[in-house]
Amino acid sequence: MKRTVTALILLCPLIATAQTTKLDSLWQPFKVFVGKWTGESEGQPGKGKYERSYEFVMNKKFIEVKNKSTYPPSQKNMKGEVHEDHGFISYDKIRMTFVLRQFHVEGFVNQYRIESISADKRTIVFLSESIENIAAGFRAKETYQIINENEFTETFELAEPGKDFELYSKATLKRTK
User: Fold this and answer.
1) 27-175 homologous superfamily
2) Measured distance CA(150)–CA(173) in Å, rounded
3) Are 73 and 94 contacting, i.e. CB atoms less than 8 angstroms apart?
4) Sign of the C-alpha dihedral, residues 157, 80, 105, 62?
5) What is the pLDDT of residues 75-133, one digit of tens each?
6) Which one, 22, 42, 54, 138, has the greatest CB density within 10 A?
7) Which residue has the higher pLDDT, 69 or 24?
8) pTM attached to this predicted model
9) Pick from 131, 130, 152, 156: which is nearest to 143 by CA?
10) In terms of DSSP H, where are the helices of the chain?
């Protein structure tokens, strides 16, 4: 009995490390995003400033994303705009794919699945599966292009029902922490 208890005590750190390693490798394509970011964008709402963070939460089961985009008044957008969204990236074990869910201040809820991750893991494309509170048939696409560990671009595209994707905004973000 004493040997069994001693063996368990000695093996516990190894088991915990193995579980952490498996979780860490699962999240490998997204680890570069974890941290705080600022950036600038251009697109349909005008020129804007971004503040964003990515953080592991709930025992590394999810990555929480918090975003705030500020667009000052312009000829395109006379009132200006402050946009906020919060999201979560999760791994769906049944479908064996990553899912991104975003909750927007305007009331939209977008659910995306991974469309592709490039072989070098520097380009990640999410394609919408559903969008709440918008006319049926709208689609959205988010493409992340990792420039280096401290910089990436995000391209957000929308497609009206029966139409091709059009650029809505493109942001370049740089790590602050």
Assistant:
1) Calycin beta-barrel core domain (2.40.128.20)
2) 8
3) no
4) positive
5) 877 888 999 999 999 999 999 999 999 999 999 999 999 999 999 999 999 999 999 99
6) 54
7) 69
8) 0.84
9) 156
10) 2-26
Report the relative pairing of strands 62-71 and 123-132 from DSSP bridges.
unpaired
Q: Rounded distance, CA 150 to CA 177, Å? A: 9
CA max distance for the chain: 78
Please give the backbone phi and psi of residue 146, each rounded to the nearest 5 degrees, phi first: -80, 120
Q: Which two tokens stand for residue 43?
A: 């697109």
For 151-156, what is the mean pLDDT? 98
Specify whether the CB–CB gap between 140 and 128 falls below 8 A.
yes
Which sign does the torsion angle of CA 169, 175, 176, 177 carry? positive
> Percentage of the chain with pLDDT > 90?
79
Which sequence spans correspond to the domains of the chain?
27-175
> Which residue carries 């942001």 as its tokens?
171
Q: How many helices and strands, by DSSP H and E, does the chain display?
A: 1, 10
Across the strands, what pairs with 41?
Answer: 48, 171
